[in-house]
Known about the structure:
By secondary structure, the protein is α/β, with parallel strands linked by helices.
Amino acid sequence: MLFNHIAIVGLGLIGGSLAQVVRKKKLAKRVTAFGRNPERLQKAQQLGLVDGYQVGFASGFKEVDLVVIATPVGSIVELTRAIAPHLKPGTIITDVGSVKAAIVAALESQLPRDINFIGGHPIAGTENSGFEASFAELFENRICVLTPTVSSDRNALEQIRGLWTAAGSSVVSMDVDTHDKIFAAISHLPHMVAFSLVNAVVDMKDYAQNTLQYSAGGFRDFTRIAASDPIMWRDIALLNRDNLLATLDYFSRAIEELKDAISARDGKKMEALFQRSRDARRKI
Length: 284
């Protein structure tokens, strides 16, 4: 058993899946969900995801030794600041957000010195949201990135590393700036492209019929992530704005290069572009 009492704030897909794996593998004596919607929290308890729940964040944290913030990234700093005064000394706080630099910088400067924050990002998820879509195996054979700094407590870091290892993930450490650049390219950009592609097809007014009704495997596979939570991705785009804009510039240049080749009927250029992409994708 790694912890006595874990509090999960934000019981969606990630928070719900973590609650399930903690209970399944007995990684804590008790798991409590904190939130604002009593009906939703009660349903989560009835489904067996958590041992109990509490509405609001003003109290109930005194016996907690780990707090996991699993809300959209735009609310992580505000919620953590609100919770911190109610925690006992030595409590660990971690998050699961896919943007790290802004969050880690804010919390390391604002939290009390006896509260230990370790930034975390499990590389797991689906296009579905809500704890109804959660499952204990979500983190198995996945990577979880931790973003400790020179100020991070080493014991707290090892405890969080142990949590994600027990959940089935391979844990790696990374500095926050590197993290945000990497995930702007391989996670945030693909979501922006998927959202934009679906919107582009929806906006094709020159077609007499609903084009989307004819979509098959290719379109559906490529745009699966466009069904993701809009609020979550709005917050990610805002918090990782500069890195995301840089990756969008790269994507725009790639689209323009392909557009120019098509316009010029340059089959050799198109084939070269497709071959380069195919070779890179096969190495993944």
